[in-house]
Amino acid sequence: MRPVVVLSGSETVRQALVKQGDDFAGRPDLYSFRFISDGKSLAFSTDQAGVWRARRKLAYSALRSFSTLEGTTPEYSCMLEEHVCKEGHYLIKQLNSVMKRDGSFDPFRHIVVSVANVICGMCFGRRYDHDDQELLSLVNLSDEFGQVVGSGNPADFIPILQYIPSSTMKKFLSINDRFTNFIQKIVTEHYATYDKDNIRDITDSLIDHCEDRKLDENSNIQMSDEKIVSIVNDLFGAGFDTVSTFVSWSVMYMVTYPEIQDKLHREIKDTVGQDRFPRLSDKVNLPYVEAFILEVLRHSSFLPFTIPHCTTKNTSLNGYFIPKDTCVFINQWQINHDPNLWNDPSTFNPERFLNSEGTEVNKVDGEKVLAFGLGKRRCIGEVIARNEVFLFLAILIQSFHFHKLPGEILDMTPEYGLTMKHKRCHLRATLRAEE
Ligand code: HEM
User: Fold this and answer.
1) Which of 49, 174, 175, 391 has the most beta carbons within 10 angstroms of its beta carbon?
2) Count of structural domains within the chain
3) Is the overall model pTM greater than 0.90, yes or no?
4) Is residue 133's pLDDT more than 60?
5) Ligand 1 atom 30, closest CA
6) What is the CATH number of the domain that holds 223?
7) Are 4 and 329 in contact (CB under 8 A)?
8) Which domain range does residue 182 map to?
């Protein structure tokens, strides 16, 4: 009922999102998007260009300040490193005790709490216990959110389906309500204890911005307090689901390819050793870990399409006329599996990113992987996400040897959605120190 342009091919996507960036920077008014953050989401709403740009700038600068801030002790290079190392430590303890108790563990269930705690630390200045039911009921869900907002949700394109009862839609609405209530409660607590001279976290910094009643210098746009403070909903939502899905997929790939897991462990053992945690500064000396991360991003393409875009004016692309307000899907999966860009694209092979000696990552090939979008709507959490995934993985690889349960076959078929998840499963982890 609504025409959609689907863009594939690296050149075409770059032409649209980078060279004609402003023309393709809108979001379509889709039925399902109206329920996210009461329609006030930064990532999914149809905000006018000026309002969206001002909110994006605010979100980006809050995120940058609270991740690059100095750690509380000199052993950490920044707050992000401190949060991840501390959560990595709890995660190791948690997995170890679950293994002792149950003999197996569900990777996503535990990883998601650790990852959520990192963004909770930056957004709300607090963390939750691994068994905290309130947090678990928000983050440890089967993925109705991703299924409804993934490109091509039928009810967004065939309006009659909006009136037909759907259990997925019901769960989606309930997730959105619980999510908004959870954050609203924390924001209210922050307003009550806010102190201009002690900005504790991203929520405080957004409240501070409202108090100052700053105008955006470029566009003179005045936004409501709600539109400013609700930015924290986007940062928390985008910050936990994507990174935990990525780390969880990485563990699945290591179990599926044990020889690759051994190589990863050997590199960390030889470079970092077993006596201290890996740090961000180790990244340059761990090319195989870097190559593995790029290959998981490429091969899984767990964000197969970006969030849908829409044209902001009449435009044309590759000689085709595209009217204003046309919905546009960006096919990241196709670019990451294009045989014109990749040799044998369906094979999982981290070495494709390394030079022949295996000592360096080929930057040009790394940049061909499309996972964070491009241009004006490109992910604002990319640097944080890449650092976070690197540290979590390096910590897990250093501490554990992951295996599948005897006799079980791992199902790597992804479940379609905005972020594609692997099927929930149980694995084993043994401490390297006890091997
Ligand atoms: C592996 C992790 C991540 C991946 C693969 C990822 C990927 C993406 C993609 C594909 C988009 C949509 C781009 C488009 O529409 O063209 C996006 C948007 C966004 N991401 Fe990420 N992301 C990740 C982590 C994060 C993190 C950690 C944060 C923040 C803490 C974040 C915040 C956002 C926001 C706010 C947007 C909306 C930007 C806008 O609409 O202007 N992301 N991300």
Assistant:
1) 391
2) 1
3) yes
4) yes
5) 239
6) 1.10.630.10
7) yes
8) 4-426
